[in-house]
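When time allows, look over one protein, given below as sequence and tokens. The question is which stretches look regular and which look disordered:
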Amino acid sequence: MKLFGKLLLVGLFFSAVLPKAVHAQGEAAVPFLLLAPDSRAGGLGESGTGLADNSAAIFWNPAGIAFLTGSELSITHSNWLPQFNLDLFYDYLTYRQYIEEIDGSVTGSVTYMNFGEFIRTGPDSPEEIGRFRSFDAALTLGYATKVHPDWGLGFNFRLIHSRLSDQPTANEQGKGVATSVSFDVAGMWRPEKLVLPLIDEDIGNKFSIGLNLSNLGPKIYYIDRAQADPIPTNFRLGFAVKLFDDEYNSLLYTLDFSKLLVSKDTVNNTSDEFYKAIFTAWADKPISEELRDIVTSTGLEYVYGTPGDFLFALRTGFFYEDPSYGNRKFLTFGAGIRYDIYGFDFSYITTSAFKGGENHPLSETLRFTISIGWGGIVEATRGLPRGI
């Protein structure tokens, strides 16, 4: 395929999957940083900010790892946008390790988004003159700790590398390769005791609230600084509550709200720096429009089994984005098993329940995750959730 044609398909990937990142509110580079990376949260409607009880919390809410002990390793793979029939896939590797001496956990993740092989042709000829591969990647390192039995804090530092081309195009001077950095700040409240006054019931260890401000960092550019674009700074607020729990069964509910904090004047092609955009992105439109710009995702997880032995989970969820701000709407389904220290999860996206969704590029997307957790992963969840 000609270079221009393949670049066009990559552009269609971003506009179809992450339309908020290219909406009039603001254009953001490297939108792969917004992809929900793991199968469990993927099966819950892509919600996990208030849950954050496994190593994938480094994406959803690193503060949730403060409530975990032991170690965990996981890897996720997905062939992305099957409707396009392209060589698009991403891999996501995570690791966390509790260290008693520092009273916290160190975490790490590698995200790799592959766009496939490009065939380069000359400006005036269709003949092939070379090939190269295009990809985005990120390395994230983090730390999470408790500042109180009920409160956790998490911090991440991220190195971002994007390779869309390996040589200048036409008269441009850049190589189509960009590198930048970002960081995340997150908090979680998971009370050990919380009595609801009206019904006099203690929901401690059954309820949590999480907040994550991610991808805070400088603009990234491929050609020159004058053409720099902001990275996708994102705000997430999430809730998780265990609705039911007995010796063998539990039912969990999750709810997330997220908003892209990018403020850009598309007429003059200028944008605020991230430390300004986290404030101006909330006020560059009327309040009714700002509220419509918030994405909502929610999910349910049913788990059967005994922690530490065998667990089986079924999941479903719903993702909603306002029609004026991207119009992504889809249902998710998922399942998982855990035996001893080993776990396997998968999730599935369908858009066919909505008008025009049969041919949506997100439809029929699958994620698969394999995980290994040892040395306290189950006990440290403190009952929220008892899941896998």
Remarks:
- The domain at 3-381 is CATH 2.40.160.40 (Porin).
- The longest strand covers residues 125-148.
- DSSP finds five helices and 18 strands in the chain.
